[in-house]
Design brief:
The structure is a homodimer of 309-residue chains. In chain A, 37% of the residues lie in helices and 27% in strands. Chain A has 309 residues and is α/β, with parallel strands linked by helices. In chain A, the strands form two sheets. The first copy, chain A, has a ten-stranded mixed β-sheet with strand order 6-5-1-9-10-11-12-13-14-15, sandwiched between helices. The first copy, chain A, has a four-stranded mixed β-sheet with strand order 4-2-7-8. Chain A binds chain B through residues 15, 17, 20-29, 31, 62-63, 65-66, 69, 92, 94, 96, 101-108, and chain B through 15, 17, 20-29, 31, 62-63, 65-66, 69, 92, 94, 96, 101-108.
């Protein structure tokens, strides 16, 4: 199975209104609710691709109970969320029916106690031996030490489990120093980590800082990869319009899927770009359009050089 | 005990943000969650005044479970909510920290099935014999017949239980024809019911349509009462600034409290206006400022005529 870690899980709620007008009252015409947080989104895509996935992180309160219920109903996903006293945060996306524009309201995460963090570490160590790969995704909730991801990476590497890190800021900086197998920063995260706004230079720099492979997501320009096996640039066949929510998480799922299937890097990148593009195209945020994915995967252009072995 | 009926209960959530800007992302700095719906608000104020209150209506889903948990923790309030398959709606009030202005997002209520409506009617008839008074508050969820309040009023009157109706539109029109003891429309609801924008004329007209007593809430101008015992106008001592959310529900609680304590009408009206004003003044929407209430109650001006008995 593939293990995804989401320390800052969420209940993602989408509201549809005619047009959001501040300081007025709105009747919500449609409510969609689903488990969220970046690692949960990665797990959903992996499960849709046919992988067995285990989801860990934290869940608490009434919103946490909804997460447990929804995961129990989701085929291919195993719920290994650790209970906490605080309530799992809600995120609310208010979508204007007329323009499709979205206004986001994000609750703060619950405070994690030292004992709860200890419970999580125990669960993580129990789950790792059965994992073919592990993804560490998203921000850290209050109470979790800033070096948390670095520790989780060291534990995974000690057990020989490949580990992908997708976060930002100081947790990314410290995580990279623990030598993860893959990081997947976007352009801003990469620039913040390296100080360089040149993606080519920055991906090389991030490798020097400790990441074995750096896959930078450049939005509509696709993925730029710097790996021990070579450097590539994978680009979607055409610009697509739609909702980019979850496109990065779908790319992570594509990279992990290719990793456990031992695909060569160019194929992994083609799958990741196709999934990401098919997510932007899907009508529901964070879902991917399977037909678009299958049609796109053969049409992603991958250019680059294999390093002489 | 006093029975409050809230067919369209809600989980009221208040978010604090710096300033709501459409089509951007917001970090919510503060989350307050509490059981809501007009009759639940009435019950909260009655319980704070020392009355034993029983809360009925519907509750379902994860949000309904939160309602049950919160009511179990609330002193003086007995939970007699009837389970339904659909989820209790959420209402979200987004308060701008800078201006205090509020943007409201209201989910639709759950669909009530004929069997669930039947369950409610059974529960209502079980609870009524022990009630000193009953309040019917708010809108009707989908699936509940538009004449629902008229039927509930007839049942209460057949058992000799005084009944107050606080709703609007067609449910109010039909309810009035069933001869409730008290209705508490605001100026708009009264105008819609009677076709007259003159509150004095409209309160008299609403009595002719069937209501024994009509207590019109006129915002900052207080309450205008047309009753079998006389006509009065009760006005707060000074204009107050604050959040009017729940002020009408507090007035209803004051009227019911005065009713079960057999106070004369001018005293009931003074309590209702003082509670309503103390609610506008309180920092948290729907709460009342107890010190303000106690100070205000002796300073409400009540003018009018007692009908010769």
């Amino acid at each position: 199975m593939i293990l995804t870690v989401t320390l800052n899980t969420a209940l993602d709620i989408t509201y549809r209104v005619r047009t959001l007008r501040p300081h007025t009252s709105h009747r919500v015409s449609d409510v969609i609710e689903r488990p969220g947080g970046k690692g949960v989104n990665v797990a959903r895509v992996l499960a849709a691709l046919g992988h067995a996935v285990t989801v860990t992180g934290f869940a608490g309160g009434a919103t946490g109970r909804v997460l447990h219920e929804r995961l129990a109903d989701a085929p291919g996903m195993t719920d290994a969320l650790v209970p906490v006293a605080g309530a799992t945060r809600r995120t609310i996306a208010v979508v204007d029916e007329l323009s499709g524009d979205t206004t986001q309201l994000n609750e703060p995460g619950p405070q994690i106690s030292p004992a709860e963090w200890g419970d999580f570490l125990d669960r993580y160590e129990e789950l790792l031996p059965a994992a073919a790969a592990v993804a560490l995704s998203g921000s850290l909730p209050p109470g979790v030490p800033v070096g948390a991801y670095a520790g989780l990476i060291r534990t995974a590497r000690a057990l020989g489990v490949p580990v992908l890190l997708d976060t930002s800021g100081e947790p990314l900086r410290r995580g990279v120093a623990a030598r993860p197998d893959i990081i997947k920063p976007n352009a801003d995260e990469l620039a913040e980590l390296t100080g360089s706004h040149d993606p080519l230079r920055a991906t090389q720099d991030a490798r020097r800082r400790g990441a074995h492979a750096v896959i930078a997501s450049l939005g509509a320009e696709g993925l730029l990869a710097a790996t021990p096996e070579g450097r590539w640039h994978a680009t979607p066949p055409a610009r697509v319009h739609g909702n980019p929510t979850g496109a990065g998480d779908s790319a992570v799922a594509g990279l992990l899927s290719g990793l456990v299937e031992r695909l060569p890097w160019p194929d992994r990148l083609a799958h990741a770009v196709a999934l990401s593009t098919a997510t932007v195209r899907a009508p529901v945020a964070g879902e991917f359009d399977r037909a678009a994915y299958e049609e796109l995967v053969g049409r992603v252009a991958v250019t680059g050089d294999q390093t002489a072995a």
